[in-house]
Write a structure and sequence with these properties.
alpha+beta, about 100 residues, about 30% helix
Length: about 100
């Protein structure tokens, strides 16, 4: 396994952001509860995907994807694209 991207700035960037997951019937639309939620496939004890694989998720959406990991694949991918666009705009995700 290679090195994983880790960034405190990316993780902190979720604070106050709108939820990009917006799971229908679940999202609370409250930016005060938004966190950076890892959505990569790497899972296990103390093993999360890189910080480049986060989405902005409100408390309720984050809880839903943690408890139902196999669900919401399309929502996760859409949200990842939106989140990475925001991180690129903020200069926190740079491709060289």
């Amino acid at each position: 396994m290679g090195n994983l991207a880790r960034s405190k700035k990316i993780m902190a960037a979720a604070k106050g952001q709108d939820c990009t997951l917006r799971l229908v019937g679940i999202c609370n639309f409250n930016p005060e509860t938004t966190v950076a939620a890892h959505v990569g496939r790497r899972r296990g004890m103390a093993c999360k995907s890189g910080d480049n694989m986060v989405v902005f998720a409100c408390y309720d959406c984050h809880n839903a994807i943690e408890s139902e990991r196999a669900l919401y694949a399309d929502d996760k991918l859409r949200s990842l694209e939106e989140t990475q666009e925001i991180l690129i705009d903020k200069g926190l995700l740079v491709v060289k």
